[in-house]
Amino acid sequence: MAELSGRQVVLPESRVPIVAEPDVLVVGGGSAGLAAATAAARNGAEVMLVERFGYLGGLASGGLIILLLTMDDGAGRQAVGGVCQEIVDRMERRGAVHYPPEGQWNDPDSQLVEHYSRWGLVWGRGPHRVRYSVAFEPHEFIFAADEMLQEAGVRPLYHTWACEPVVEDGVIQAVVIQNKSGRQAIAPRVVIDTSGDGDLFAAAGEPFELERVHPWLWFLLSNVGDLEEAFQGSKGFFFRTLGEGRVLVPWGGDARTKLRIDATDPVEVSEALVECRQMVKEEAARLRGSVPAFRDAYISLIADQLGITESRRLQGEYVMSRDDLDRSFADSIARTGHWTKYGCVYNIPYRSLLPKGLTNFLTAGRCISVDHRVNHATKEIPPCMATGEAAGTAAAMALEDGVGVKDVDVRRLQARLRQQGAILE
Ligand SMILES: Cc1cc2nc3c(=O)[nH]c(=O)nc-3n(C[C@H](O)[C@H](O)[C@H](O)COP(=O)(O)OP(=O)(O)OC[C@H]3O[C@@H](n4cnc5c(N)ncnc54)[C@H](O)[C@@H]3O)c2cc1C
Questions:
Q1: Which of the four CATH numbers 3.90.1310.10, 3.40.50.12780, 3.20.20.300, 3.50.50.60 does domain 18-211+311-419 have?
Q2: pTM over 0.70
Q3: How far is CA 21 from CA 68, 175, 289, 338, in A?
Q4: Closest of 195, 196, 201 to residue 172, by C-alpha
Q5: Does residue 216 have its Cβ closer than 6 Å to ligand 1?
Q6: Is 5 exposed, middle or buried (0-12, 13-18, 19+ CB in 10 A)?
Q7: Which residue has a Cα nearest atom 1 of ligand 1?
Q8: Is 290 or 334 the better-scoring residue by pLDDT?
Q9: For a substitution probing ligand 1, which of 59, 136, 257 has the most ligand atoms within 8 Å of its CB?
């Protein structure tokens, strides 16, 4: 039993059972974790994925960030393919996406640009052109992600937190998890941290940077009247989305919070959730009261997690900076355009997924080793999926070749990624 000792609690020395020994453990089932787990399993690894919530997608589903920005380079060429393109295709088969066909990419036609801007698919300073960006249904992302994990044979463990890595001589020997069964451990051969917040690399003592950010709750309004009238009659900020009479209200609409939080501090996150929910309520009431098309609209869904653009970023083997825009890397394993810029790309080196110390560990998604500027591009869902796919593939190849993840043959990794449909420089 735990005991009180003054202002502290002394926990008893405890032993927890090792309940699984997969080849690869993926921590966090957001877009990056989905891609990492799927790629590792398809490349022959036995994969487990732990996720603190009960569904896949992270911000891309539960956070209602239901826009893939962007899959092109802003000059009419596709920059992200692979698992990201696959999930678009899967959702498309169920009629759950809206995006410009290839013939329209890079088109400066003002009517087309206006159409896709209203869907939230064109951003940044003009002059604008049509981008290859995709709006989608959040639950369809989850359905497609479930299918992908099942088909690949990944074992998901939901409602489970990964809390503590057990590190010996630079190797993560086990990860302690917590769920309704209490504390248990998983002993994988390779760990991929796709927790978004870098929970595992932080707990393992790897260096990182932490950014304080504005928190947001995106939400959906349904039963909106004439959308054309809504766009004409409102100064508010909302996007068309899939489904009749529905709009997506990003960033709390007109209401803006001054708050900047540390997304790894549960007290700050809790306070922000309450404030952001209040803002959702007020913004919905404001729209109902001020725009006739919104008179009968109601809130049909609020993001169940705060929109957090950034928290911890690994300071790994290579930290990308803004000077790396359009730069070539011999070890690039993914590339991404920039959602507010045209005609430029970041090639992402394998070293940005690798920590300085740990030898059986990779990270992917929004917490990879880049600076604040580059994070603006690499945090987007398509590049998160691209780095996830690279991390999962690399983990499986390291096991296949009997080497550490730092010694993976990058040329073979690049060839394998291309075979899988990934787009590299
Ligand atoms: C306000 C806002 C607007 C954005 N707009 C866009 C946009 O329009 N288009 C775009 O493409 N991108 C956009 N982004 C960026 C994008 O949504 C995210 O950066 C991306 O979805 C992150 O994916 P991820 O998998 O790295 O992390 P997440 O989606 O955060 O996934 C992390 C997963 O790990 C789980 N997890 C965390 N810790 C643990 C733990 N210890 N144990 C177990 N599970 C854990 C979480 O529950 C979650 O499922 C936006 C982001 C924000 C916040």
A1: 3.50.50.60
A2: yes
A3: 34, 10, 57, 39
A4: 201
A5: yes
A6: exposed
A7: 307
A8: 334
A9: 59
pLDDT score recorded for residue 307: 94
CB of 381 sitting under 6 A from ligand 1: yes
d(CA 122, CA 396) in angstroms, rounded, equals 36
Judged against a pLDDT cut of 70, whether residue 253 lies above it is answered with no
Is residue 167's pLDDT more than 70? yes
% of the chain at pLDDT higher than 70 = 98
| Strands lying side by side in the sheet with 239-240 | 239-240, 247-249, 219-222, 298-302
Give the number of the atom of ligand 1 that is nearest the alpha carbon of residue 196: 27
Does ligand 1 lie within 6 Å of residue 384's CB atom? yes
How far away, in angstroms, is 289 Cα from ligand 1 center? 33
Q: What is the mean pLDDT of residues 236-243?
A: 91
CA of 225 to the centre of ligand 1 (A): 32
Contact, 202 vs 373, CB < 8 A?
no
State the pLDDT confidence band at 234, using cuts at 50, 70 and 90: confident
Q: What is the model's pLDDT at position 256?
A: 66
Pocket test for ligand 1, best of 379, 385, 387 (most atoms within 8 A of CB): 379
Query: Across all residues in the chain, what is the average pLDDT?
Result: 96
From the CA of 218, give the closest atom in ligand 1. Answer: 1
Q: Do 347 and 327 form a contact (C-beta atoms < 8 A)?
A: yes
What residues does each domain of the chain span?
A: 18-211+311-419, 219-302
pLDDT: which is higher, 2 or 420: 420
Q: Residue 12's pLDDT is what?
A: 87
